[in-house]
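Exam revision sheet. Question 4 asks you to relate a sequence to its structure. Input first:
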Amino acid sequence: MQLQLIKKRTERGMSPLQIARLMGLKKKDIQAVVKEHGWSAKREIEKVGNGRPPRPSEKTEWRMQEMKRLAHEGYNRKQIGALLGIDRSYVDTLCRRYGIKTVSQLEQIENLYSKGWTQMKIAEELGVSKQRISEMIKRHDLKKGDRP
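Answer key, structure tokens:
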């Protein structure tokens, strides 16, 4: 299961460091797996600054664009912070400032559970414990869908 996630995230253009942070693994382990399987990004993430350190306004603009892209792809604020290497509270601030709507963890759990995913699979995908998933399902009385 983790190999599929690493492949998917590599193809999306995430760096090994971003993937490692998100999955709680070591960067060198991610690099070894990517190299072993020969995976590469389908598209390159645009570099900011044209060879020079980015100005603060350029960095914020780039972060805003990346946050919008990640939010559109269905990541929650915690995951966006991990991927961009910034604090969750700063992600919250930028989302409020620029009106970026992100998917809540509950919405993600509800969506995956209704598709028939197991609690363990959902926990691995979202990077939380199975117990947390179980609590959310019970608290919000979520119904499981058919298995895919």
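Marking note for examiners. The two ends are 15 Å apart (CA to CA).
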